[in-house]
Amino acid sequence: MEKENKPEMQKIKTGISILDDEIMKGGIPKGHRILVTGTTGTLKSTFCFHILHQAALDGMNGAFISLEQSADSMLQQMMEMKYDFGKIVLDSNNIEAIKPFIQKSAGQKKQGIIQLIDIGFERKKLTTTKSRMKFSWLDALEQKLEQMKKTVKPEIIVLDSLNILYHLDKDKFADKRRDLFYVIDYLRDLKVTSLIINEIPAGDDRYSQYGIESYLVDGVIQLSQRRRELDVVRELHIVKMRSVDHSLKVYTFQFDKNEKFKIRKKIASE
């Protein structure tokens, strides 16, 4: 009896050569929900935006969804990191905020779309304080994602961040396990690749705030940092990635505004 040939797993390139070629064996599997976790200052947002930017250069549509930053603030931050927006289409739910940046790159050939979504701006569209109180942050997030499914049709999204969602929607997360399962399951049903940013306190050895998020997602990428004499060393570790024979080694990485992320293997004596 002939073996049934399984379709080859599709992957999204991160644009970081060692991560794609050696660590992840081709990139992030399409449709996976990935928890990107780490303490303050480990470049979680920049790391996720880098992957989103590379996906757009490869012709995919995506969105960076923030619960705390405005669209122009997000864009300004990434422009300071010297990301080139000349070859991609920039869009936003608050188009007026980023219009000056769009005009600068007008006339150039474009690849994919990056939407910068400010969920706070979505809630401000509601005219009264009373209506805003009834319309939770999670409601606003879901409504925007449903709209995007019909218009931009993103293949990859970044959610920044899970911690802020917990803080802003405390009532929605009364039963942590049940409500977290709902959020993660909802992202799966969208059939997009999701990078979910999660911040942990310094010194906490868990991968997430409640210790259960890492069980619900398909992958966990841990970014960390430690002091070495007068320097700070940043490290990357793929804790888990379903269906991928990934490296379990810890790698050090640096970020340079011109060359972006550079990763190398951690030396035992370091």
Description:
This protein has 270 residues and is an alpha/beta fold. The protein has one domain (11-223): 3-Layer(aba) Sandwich (Rossmann fold). It is built from ten helices and twelve strands. The strands form two sheets. Strands 5-6-4-7-8-3-9-10-11-12 form a ten-stranded mixed β-sheet. A two-stranded antiparallel ribbon has the order 1-2. α4 (95-104) links the parallel β5 (89-92) and β6. The termini are far apart.
What fold name goes in the CATH topology slot? Rossmann fold
| Annotation field: number of helices | 10
Fourth CATH level, the homologous superfamily:
P-loop containing nucleotide triphosphate hydrolases
Beta percentage is: 25-35%
**Helix-and-strand structural type:** alpha/beta
Provide key terms for this protein.
270 residues; alpha/beta; Rossmann fold; 10-stranded mixed β-sheet; two-stranded antiparallel ribbon; 12 strands; globular
What's the gist of this structure?
By secondary structure, the chain is of the alpha/beta class. It has helices at residues 17-23, 44-57, 71-80, 95-104, 119-124, 129-134, 137-150, 162-168, 176-189, 213-216, and strands spanning 11-12, 28-29, 33-38, 62-66, 89-92, 113-118, 156-160, 193-199, 219-228, 231-241, 250-256, 260-265.
Set down the secondary structure blueprint.
Elements: E1 11-12, H1 17-23, E2 28-29, E3 33-38, H2 44-57, E4 62-66, H3 71-80, E5 89-92, H4 95-104, E6 113-118, H5 119-124, H6 129-134, H7 137-150, E7 156-160, H8 162-168, H9 176-189, E8 193-199, H10 213-216, E9 219-228, E10 231-241, E11 250-256, E12 260-265
Parallel strand pairs: 3-8, 3-9, 4-6, 4-7, 5-6, 7-8
Antiparallel strand pairs: 1-2, 9-10, 10-11, 11-12
